[in-house]
Design goal:
The protein has about 80 residues and is mainly α. It has three helices and no strands.
Amino acid sequence: MLASSITENQVISAIITIAFLLMSIFLENINSIFSSISIMNFYEKFPSGVVSLTEVTGLVSFSVVFIALTILVMQRRKSVK
């Protein structure tokens, strides 16, 4: 949603989204510093059936941050027009 709210072109939005997803998958392999902010770390225990509160909280907070950023971008775009 954030990439779509930033650009008006759908293709550029898709490229930004794909690049972000690929970065989040391979970020933990590049450097150990980035492993703590990698999205894939939140999904480690889900396949085995373990639902951890820290993983759920991390995913929800990640979603809330990006939804809030999308709302800010849309409000600024609305105030400019």
